[in-house]
TrEMBL record:
Main EC class the enzyme belongs to: oxidoreductase
EC number annotated for this UniProt entry: 1.1.1.22
Coiled coil: none
Family to which the UniProt record says this protein belongs: Belongs to the UDP-glucose/GDP-mannose dehydrogenase family.
Source organism (scientific name): Rhodohalobacter sulfatireducens
Pathway(s) served: Nucleotide-sugar biosynthesis; UDP-alpha-D-glucuronate biosynthesis; UDP-alpha-D-glucuronate from UDP-alpha-D-glucose: step 1/1
InterPro entries for this protein: 6-PGluconate_DH-like_C_sf, NAD(P)-bd_dom_sf, UDP-Glc/GDP-Man, UDP-Glc/GDP-Man_DH_C, UDP-Glc/GDP-Man_DH_C_sf, UDP-Glc/GDP-Man_DH_dimer, UDP-Glc/GDP-Man_DH_N, UDPglc_DH_bac
Keywords, sorted A to Z: NAD, Oxidoreductase
Name of the protein in its database record: UDP-glucose 6-dehydrogenase
The reaction(s) this protein catalyses: UDP-alpha-D-glucose + 2 NAD(+) + H2O = UDP-alpha-D-glucuronate + 2 NADH + 3 H(+)
PANTHER family in UniProt: UDP-GLUCOSE 6-DEHYDROGENASE TUAD
The UDP-glucose/GDP-mannose dehydrogenase C-terminal domain, residue ranges: 318-424
Amino acid sequence: MKIGVIGTGYVGLVTGTCFADSGNDVICVDIDEKKVQRMQNGEVPIYEPGLNRVFDRAIREKRLHFTTRIEEAFKESEIIFLCLPTPPGANGQADLSFVLDVANDLGDLFNKYPGYKVIVNKSTVPVGTADKVKEKIAQKTDTEFDVVSNPEFLREGAAVEDFMKPERVVVGTTSEKAADLMTTLYEPFVRSGNPIIIMDERSSELTKYAANAMLATKITFMNEIANVCEKVGANVDNVRRGIGTDTRIGKRFLFAGIGYGGSCFPKDVQAIHHTADEYGYEFKILDSVMKVNESQKVSIVDKMKLYYNGNLEGKTVGIWGLSFKPETDDIREAPSLYITEQLAKMGVSMKAYDPEAIETFKEASSDETLSKMQFVEDRDSVIDGVDALIICTEWNEFRRPDMDRFAEVMNEPVIFDGRNLYDLDRARDAGLTYISVGRPSVNI
Ligand code: UDX
C-alpha cells in the first residue's frame, strides 16, 4: 500500500518505518528541513532501540522517503497518518492547532487530487477530534474520504517491538470501506492472533486515554501502598508478589517508585480529566492520581531531609539516571528534574550520570539547577567522594554494580533508591545505609 505519514516525531517515525518494513511504500513529511535532510541521509533523529536497523533496511529497499511537502505524500497515498504534536494547551486540554491546520491543507489537496483516501488520527487527541478533522476537510472539498481514529500504544524504549507485535490494534471508524483498508494494512502485524478491534471513533479516542489513565492509576495505587508499607513496617515487594498473582490484578505495572513521568501519562491523565470536566463530570480518582504522583516525584527529597535533619546544604550527592525511564533519552516529566531542582535550591551539589539523557536533561533544566550540577561520563565516577547516591532511573547498568565499591569510594555509603534496585540483604552485607521505596530502611 502507499502510505503518507505527516509528522516525524517519535510516533510518526516509528509508524512510518514499521509500515515500510512490512512492504508498504511510505512517504514521511516534516516541516523541519534540517531533520528531513538528516533522515534522507539515513540518520535516525531519535534514540529508540531497534529503530536504526529497521530504518536502514527500509531506506536501502527504497520504501521509506522523506519530504517537507505534504503534497508529495498526499498525491499517491491511500492512507495518510497524522502524527502531529498535540501539546497541552493553556487549560490542560490538548492543543489541536497543528492537527487542524494540516486538516485544512488536506482539504485543498483533496480538491487538487480527487479520489478516496483515509485520514488517520494517530496522535493522542481529545474525544471528538475525528469529527473536527472531518468537518475541517469537508469545508474544502466534496471528495469522498474517511477520518479514522487509530491510537498508538507504543512504549518509549520498546516502540518498535510494540508496533511490530501489538497486543491489539484499535481502529475507530463507522465506515466499512475504511475499516477494510485499515484491517488489510494491520493484518501482517497481528498474525499471532491478536485482535484488530473496530469501534466507533469516539470510543477509540477514549480508549487511548482510558488505557493510560488506568495504568497511571495502577502505578499510583502501588506508590500509595508503598507509602503505607513504610508507615506500618511492611515490604511492598512482598505485597506486590502477593497481589500480582491474582490474574484479575496481573503482575505487570505494579512497581512502586518515584512516580510516573514521560510524555504520555501526565498529559493524558490531565486531558481525560479535563474532557470529563468539560462534559460536566468530575473525574475524582484522577484528581488524586495527579496529586499523589506530584508528591511521589519528590518523596526522595523528603526522605533525605528526614535523614539529614533538614541539613542538606553543602552536601555533594551523586545521581544515577536522569531519563523518566530506561532505554530512552526522554526526560519529559522525569522525577530527576524535580529532585535536582529542589536539591539545588537547598544548596546541594550534584554529580550526575545517565547513559543517554544528559543532553536532553541540560536543555530542560534551569541555569540555577545546572550551576549546582556536574555531569560525568560513567556510572562509577559518580560515586567517588560523594556523601550520598540517589537512583532516579532503573537503567540496567545500575542493577549490578560492585556493591563493595560504594563503601570504599563514597564519603558515606548512603543510597536513596527511587527504583528499588537492590536486595535488602545485599545492601546490608555491603554495609550500606539503604533507603528505598515501600521497603524497610537498612542500617539506619
Ligand atoms: C506509555 C504507555 O505504556 C503507552 O502504551 C502509551 O501509548 C504511551 O505512554 P511510556 O510513556 O513510553 O508509554 O512509558 P511506560 O513504560 O508505560 O512507563 C510510564 C511511566 O510509568 C514511567 O515513568 C515508569 O517509570 C512508570 N512505571 C511503570 C512505574 O513507576 N511503575 C511500573 O510498574 C511501571
